[in-house]
Structures are given as C-alpha cells and as structure tokens.
Amino acid sequence: MLQFITHKNPQLDEIEGARAALEGGCKWIQLRMKDASDEEFVAVGRVIGKMCKEAGAKFILDDRVHLVEILDADGVHVGKKDMPVPEARKLLGPNRIIGATANTLEDALKAVKDGADYLGIGPFRFTTTKQRLAPVLGLYGLTKLMTKLREVSDIPVVAIGGIKDSDIRDIMRSGVTGIAVSGNILNAPSPKEKTEIILNEINLSK
Predict the structure, then answer these.
(1) Which pairs from 95-101 meet CB under 8 Å and 24+ separation?
(2) Is-above-0.90 flag for pTM?
C-alpha cells in the first residue's frame, strides 16, 4: 500500500506530481494544499480526482471535509488539529474513508475508538514537506508503537515522514500496512520510475 501526498517543487505542481505517481502504479493519492484557497483546491482537485477515477485509485483530501462531496472524493485525512474523526464521520456518513494522524500510542488508540478507517503514523524522520512537525519516531519508536497497537487493533496503518527507499523493508516489518511519501517521489529525476521502485520495495517486504 502506497499513498502519495501531493506537494510541489520548481519542476512539478500537484497535478503533475500526482499524474507521475499514478503512472508509476500508485493507487492512493492524498491532495494536500495547506496554503491554497478553497477555490484553488477545488480546481486542482477536480483534475486529480478525474485522474484517480481513470486509474482506479483512491482520492483522499487532506483536512477539507467540507469539500469531499463537492469533489466526489473517496474520503479525507484529518490531522490532530483538524476536525475530529467523529465529527467528520457525522458529516460524511459511513461510506467515506476517514484517515487520522497519530504520533503516539494514545493518539492511535483514540483514533481507532473514534472510528477512523486508517492511521497515518509518524513522522518517521524529519521532513520539510510538513510544518509544525510532531516528535520524530524513528524505526525504534515506530516498531514499539506498532507492536502495542497490533495487540488490540488490525486497523490499516501507513508510516509517514521523510521515508527513504532504504527504510521501506524495515518499516514494513514493523507491522504497518504501507507507507505514505511525498518528496521522495516528487523530487526524484523520474517520479514515475521512483514510484515503481517504491512499490517494488513494498511488495518485496510482504
């Protein structure tokens, strides 16, 4: 399971980055545009949403619960300071995917109790693509958290935050379901080929 979280650099914007990831075989795109207006977000979201449908990929919005219906997205990912999971569920109903961010076992257990469909646990290491970064977990911290979580829940989990190719096999052994990346794909010489490499590493880890 690979989730690509959109970002932009001088070469590629959110749309081109998502297109490259989809062409490389990614089946899960999260649209994140923290500083964009709703109007800008919807304009980009309509394009990426269409691409995801054509590719048979999940399309998730970061934070903007109120735009899920407008963009016909598959769901939303909410951070610890975003709308609470129960409130998002009340608005979106039972059939939309709701993911939640967790940095501690306490966070994870609360999200499970609140009815999240999956967790994004991290950051694995320092990353420049996210502001107000929570404490870095590292492999030891992630493995410890996952060991405790798996004693009580089999909820899908993606590890996130500065993940490199060389990390993937060890991360997958921690008990996570997959990984979420942004810069690793976007900043590669060929984002499409990088996506293929990452997916291969995930599959070899199973």
Answers:
(1) 96/68, 97/58, 97/60, 99/60, 99/75, 101/77
(2) yes
